[in-house]
Amino acid sequence: MHPRLITVPPFDFLGRHVDSLTLHSYGVLLALAFLAGLWVAGRQARRAGLDAGRVTDLAVYVLIAGLVGAKALLVIVEWRYYVDHPREILWVFQSGGVFYGGLLAAFPVAWWYVRRHELDGWKTADVLAPGVAIGQAVGRLGCFAAGCCHGRPTHVAWAVTFRDLYAARTVGTPLDVALHPTQLYESAATALIFAALLWLAPRKRFDGQVVTAYVVLYSVARFTIEFFRGDASRGFVFGGLLSTSQFISIVLVLAAGAVWPYLAKRPAATAA
Question: I need a surface site. Which of 100, 175, 233, 246 has the fewest CB within 10 A?
Fold first, then answer.
């Protein structure tokens, strides 16, 4: 793990003292994840006969909403901690956040944009889904570099051991303990989902099939990976029976299952 790519020691600039500057690996990989998602969304839009500019603009709005939502849900699930340590809210952007918070925040923003610009909602969602998946695949590498979203202690042959004191101070990474590399599990899972969505997109039978497939596949993957997670900051429900993300996974699978028959009755629109 390398939470810091570059650290510039304190220096004087134009007669003023500047504290040390740090370029974090998480921030760099998150930016690369956004760029990868935008590129894929634009490419898929052109293939689907949609206005690539409109879709790319929508993707930017969705990404911003997703970032804010992920941080907001992190504060919500750890509300007791932040009530006791209110100053820590100022540092919430150093942590990875809860992805489902970003996904749920993105829905109303996407709905508003689609209605405003009279886009085909389900067809546009199909275009965006692969971009979200590849963004997750790259973004989780940032989590691995930072040490957040870590796994439980384990003795498996592929266990990872973190040793960076900076990571322990900033995101609470356990040091000198063999852990499940849950960040890599999710990165690999979402990369496979991305490949599956690219295969499905030109073969779909109805608009909305790609995005509902994404919701189901990611929810199943996330529900499973949560059993190997070891960070306590993700929140739990039902007396600790399920993590917050596992509960949301169940809700999303049920929602996708409910909407699937309705969408299947609507044939996919022909690409321009």
Answer: 175
